[in-house]
Amino acid sequence: MNRSMPSADLVLDGRSLTIEEVVSVARPAEQVALRLSDGAADAMKSSLDLKHELLAQRIPIYGVTTGFGDSCVRQIAPEKAWDLQRNLVLYHLNGVGPTAAPEVARASMLIRANSLARGVSAIRPGTVELLLRLVERDVLPLIPERGSLGASGDLVPLCYVAAALLGEGDVAHRGTVRPVADALAEEGLEPVRLEPKEGLSLINGTSFTAAFAALATADAEELAFVADLATAMSCEALLGNASHFHPFVHDSKPHPGQGTSAGLIRALLAGSALTTSYEEILLRREPLRERGYVRLEHRIQDKYSIRCAPHVTGVLRDTLSWVRPWVTTEINSATDNPLFDGELGELHHGGNFYAGHLGQAMDSLKVAVANIADLLDRQLELIVDEKFNNGLTPNLVSPTAPDDARAGLNHGFKGMQIACSAVTAEALKMAAPATVFSRSTEAHNQDKVSMGTIAARDARTVVELTRSVAAIHLIALAQAIDLRGVANASPAVRRVHAAIREVSPFVDGDRRLDLDVEAVAGLIRTGALRRAAGVRAPADPDPVA
Questions:
Q1: Residue 311, burial from CB neighbour count under 10 angstroms (0-12, 13-18, 19+)
Q2: Which of 62, 91, 278, 304 is labelled catalytic?
Q3: Where do the domains of the chain lie, and which CATH numbers do they carry?
């Protein structure tokens, strides 16, 4: 990608940033030029003017002419306020744990810039423009994942962003770790000296949490589709009863997400020669006549992981229906403190840095997504287990004649099921809520905190684990469809099968499959399987093509 020639513009106004735009900047397929809207710059200047007026009055302004947190009772002269901002950044550079992925750094920086673009944080447009230049030029701070309570903002993680603007520390510059001062010089950029309040404006917000939340939300929406796809393919692989997805059933329990999932499964199964229906089972059964008992050769109801799949995936869809607007509101909010109303000339102290909505949203999202992992793991058991897979080979091994020299040597998807069970267990373990673990800290000033950052990081991890579960299951399902005969599958499943086969060949003998899992997980993450099936993006009003 040629980063010197942007091919798209994104104008930030603090009010209209979308999750899709966050993803497009975090995971760039093309260079995006970022800038502040004229209205945002004007509002920012208005709040700056008010800040300077109040500084001249030598009154206590939290974090500007007072200490931070419990130290707010210690007022300093305005002349010291510049050094106070630098010290604020430096004493929070104490994060631990793994370095956040580049996509998280980009999303955090974009969301922080958009929050400041609302124009109530008393920060100069030029300081925010520098932040945007770092995103454009791929100068990314190395942000430790751990250290935020999700209240008083993501102080520790966002300090690494602020430090990059100061020219302090190391960054990843187009994939190479180097001193930020060198990266800025190469890009023709100058570090800033933070004005009073600017350090607090940069770090006292929920942008790091929101970055994880926005990416997890977008990825979970793809998983909702994949769960319905896997259910449709499982129904075909097991010669299952498609009547379970009849509109009458789901209209009778009209949860919107449940109905959407059932409708999508029906659409994906349209034209299938592998599935059956209740009516067809009745036609094929041995009549009871005058007998008191007869054993049916075909189950009239499939197991819960097939029959009740819309009731599981529907919960994820309905959870996303309120998680998405909550996250969208957060990424378009001023989340620092204090806030300056330049229009009315008023200063307001509050707590918009509290990530309570993000924490609740992510705790709920990870539970719903972990249930998808469990659902798909149970479906996989039915597919690979010869006791339940309705005539498929044991562990989906390639068929061999008894006298074939390879007979008995291959174990097919036995190892894949073991891995899938382990990954599922980890996803389920991480589904416990984080937001109930509030810890009073900072001299009992931060005596109730959201833990939203941990919840959002957990949601990211649960999504990633579930995507791996889905990839394993889909490779197994592609194998099962091959064994049943691809020509008998529905048109939509045939297209998906072809997309999987481009990166994961038929398993005709035991071989390593970890690279296949990684490749199919990539198809899920990018939406390639959804597009192959002919289904529109999850955010579209009518995702079924």
A1: middle
A2: 62
A3: 9-204 (1.10.275.10), 215-282+300-336+349-533 (1.20.200.10)
